[in-house]
Amino acid sequence: MRVRRLIGTVLVAGLLAAVGPATATAATAAPAPAPEAGRDPVIIVAGTLAGQAISSIYYAPLAARLRADGYDVTIFGLPGSGLGDIGAVSQNLNQKADEVRARTGAARVDLIGHSQGGLVIRHYLKFRGGASEVDAAISLGAPHYGAAVANLLTLLGLGSCAGVVACRQMTIGSPFLAALNAGDDTIGNVRYTNIASVTDGIVQPFTTSFLSNDGDNSNVKVQGQCPFRVVSHVGLPYDGTVYSGIQDALANRAITLNCFAL
User: Fold this and answer.
1) Which candidate among 57, 60, 181, 207 keeps its CA 20 to 30 Å from the CA of 17?
2) Could you give the CA distance from residue 32 to residue 256 in angstroms, rounded to a whole number?
3) CA distances (Å), origin 115, targets 31, 148, 254, 261
4) CB within 8 A of 164, min separation 6: which ones?
């Protein structure tokens, strides 16, 4: 239990340190324009350790960019800070998507999932009926096929991910991922985009963020188009180059990254 608390404390501290400057910028930004008609509302699905309180701060800059581009945006923080069963969290996402569709009158939503958020999205799509409720599913550094760091916790003698259920589920080769990835990676009439960085630092190998392509999927390696761009795992939601890919994905365009975007 002491090790588990230590891991959580270190990771939360890292998250808060990363969001500090960006949050200050967002707080002084001008009010966003009203959402443009005809655009799907967007739900940002948070990553591990980002409950609603933290995610409302951490993902505020990304939400501000989207609102400035004319999108209705909701930030979905993970219940229990994303330490519990990912499958159970996808039910909460299902409810949130229903609420957003009812509020806006939209038939479908677009989803952006950072890290574990990408797995929550895919579970919702595959097992909760989300494939008929979503147009675009965009993941940023999501461990679709696991993250070696989760396996490392076990190798270091910390037990099975120090007892954190979601960590066990994100382990490469876990039963959870085996079920999630059985059959078609990209089910339904949904446009899938998976953005990953060679310099992620957390989700490694970075290729575990990619999905098999059956015609409705785009795997985007940041450094494939922008070789000198350094983007960390925690920095994916803040990076301007990554955001240029998000803009293309939402607009159903080929992903052409702006390597010099701020």
Assistant:
1) 207
2) 25
3) 28, 13, 23, 22
4) 4, 7, 83
188 — alpha (psi -120 to 50), left (phi > 0) or beta? left
Question: What's the pTM value of the predicted model, to 2 decimals?
Answer: 0.87
Which burial class, exposed, middle or buried, applies to 179 when counting CB atoms under 10 A from its CB (0-12, 13-18, 19+)?
Answer: middle
Residues 175 and 194: their CA atoms lie apart, in Å, by 22
Check: CB of residue 106 under 8 Å from CB of residue 134.
Answer: no
Residue type, 112: I
How far is it, in rounded angstroms, from Cα 114 to Cα 103? 24
How many angstroms separate the CA atoms of 54 and 56, rounded?
A: 5
pLDDT for the residue 54: 97
Q: Rounded to whole angstroms, how far apart are CA atoms 200 and 22?
A: 19
Cis peptide bond upstream of 227, omega within 30: no
Give the H/E segment covering residue 103.
helix 86-104
Residue with tokens 């929550």: 120
Which residue's structure tokens are 């007892």? 163
CB environment 66-94: b (16+ within 10 A), e (fewer) = bbebebbbbbbbbeebbbeebbebbbbbb
pLDDT at 153: 58
**187, 126 Cβ separation under 8 angstroms:** yes
Q: Could you give the CA distance from residue 76 to residue 59 in angstroms, rounded to a whole number?
A: 10
First to last CA, the chain: 41
Counting every residue written for the chain, the total comes to 262
